[in-house]
Amino acid sequence: xxxxxxxxxxxxxxxxxxxGELRISPGALIVVDETGLIAEVLTPGEAxxxxxxxxxxxxxxxxxxxxxxxxxxxxxxxxxHAPQWPQLGKALDVTLAEWLDDYTxxxxxxxxDIDFATTVYxxxxxxxxxxxxxxxxxxxxxxxxxxxxxxxxxxxxGQRALVGRVAMDAPDACPxxxxxxxxAVAVEQTVALIDYIKDHPGNKAxxxxxxxxxxxxPSCSDELLRGLGRVVAESGCHVQTxxxxxxxxxxxxxxxxxxxxxxTYRDFGLLTRRxxxxxxxxxxxxxxxxxxxxxxxxxxxxxxxxxFANAVFPTREALDAGVHVGLGTDISGGPxxxxxxxxxxxxxxxxxxxxxxxxxLPAGERGSPASRITFAEAFWMATTGGGIALDLPIGVFxxxxxxxxxxxxxxxxxxxxLIWPELDSPxxxxxxxxxxxxxxNVATVWVQGRKVRANRGISPPLx
Length: 463
Ligand code: GUN
Ligand code: FE
Prior knowledge:
The structure is a single chain. It is built from 16 helices and 17 strands. By secondary structure, the protein is α/β, with parallel strands linked by helices.
C-alpha cells in the first residue's frame, strides 16, 4: 500500500487523449515514478523498451497484463452526492422537487449522526473504487463533522476526491430541519472545511481538494451566493453546484434573478475555470458561450437527466462550442455507481436526441439532427474530459500525468463482458467494455501509483 519506488505496467492500454480519438496501444510499458506520476510510456520497438522492461521485471517491479486484460485510465465522476448512497436505485418515479422534499432532505439530515455517516461513506468510497472511479467530486451534507469524515475515508481508502460541504440557507426551498441557520454560518463552515483539507496530515500528496458547494439557486440566498463567491476569490477553490437542471429549477432561477443560472453564478463570482456545473440541461447558446469563455465545466449526468430533468443536456453542442464536459453518476439521481454506465447512457441519450421519439412525426422532424456523440467521445468525457474539467493531470497515459488506472479483466468469472477473439476487433472490445464492464471486471485499481483495490470483483478492499 505504500507508494514505493519505480514500477511498470505492461499490456494493452486504452485511453482517449484527444476528443473523438481512441488510442489502443498493445504492449504499452507505463513506467511510474516514486511519487505516483507516469515517468514515461514506451511502446514496443522503441529503443529503450526491451531494456526497461527487462530491468523492471528483474527487479520484481513489473505488472504484466494477461491475455484478456486491458489497462484503462481511472474514471472521473464529476458529480456524486455521497450521502444519497443509501437511496441508490429508488424513488426515481417522482419529480425532482418531491424527491428532494420527501426522500433526499430527510436522508441527508441523518448525517448529523457521525456513526451513520461513517458506515455509509466507507461503503460508498469502496464501491466507487471497486467500479474503477479513481476520482470523485462529492457533495456531502451541511454537517461539517460528517463531511470531514468523508475526507478522512477518501484519504484512508486512497481515492482522489474533491469534497464539498453543502451550503443551503433559503427557507423557501430548504426544510427547517435541514438548513443552514444563516448565510454567515454556511460560509464559515465552508472555510472550515477548506482549512481542514488543506491542513490534513494525510493529504501531503494533495489527493483531496475542497469544493465550494452552493446546492442550487433555489436553496441559496443571494447573501450566501455572494459570501461563497468571496471565499472562491480568496481561496481559488473549486466550485460545484447544480445549474438549470429541470423546468422547475430553471424557471425558479429565471424568475428570481431575471436571467439564467449561468449568469447568476457568474455575477456572484462562482463561475470560474474550476467550476463544475451539474446537469445544465436548459442552458442557452449564450450560456454555453459564457461557460466556454470562463473555462468552467459541465458534469453531464445522462441517467439523472432522463428521470428528473425534463430534457437532456446538449452534449454535442457543448463539445462543439469548446465547453469542458465530463460525466457524473449523480448518485442517487442516477441509479448506477458505474461511470461506464454513465458513458453508454451519454451515447444513448445523444442518439435519442438526434432521432427524436415521436413516431407520429416524419423522421426529418422528429429529433435534433447531428446531436450524437461517439463511444470514444463518451470515454474521453469519463477520463480525459473529467481531468480537464478539474484542472488535474489525470485521465491520460502520458508522462507527467498521475498514474490513476485500472485493469479491466474481460476473462473474470461471472461476467457479461464476453469476448470472442476471432470475432472482436480491439475497437469492438473497447465498446463491449463500455457497455458491459462491471465491478467483476475491475481487477486492480491504482490512484497516484498506489494500489487501492485488488478486488477481482468481490473481496474486501485492501487496508
Ligand atoms: N438539485 C438540488 N439538489 C439536488 C440533488 O441532490 N440532486 C439533483 N439531481 N438535483 C438537485
Ligand atoms: Fe445532483
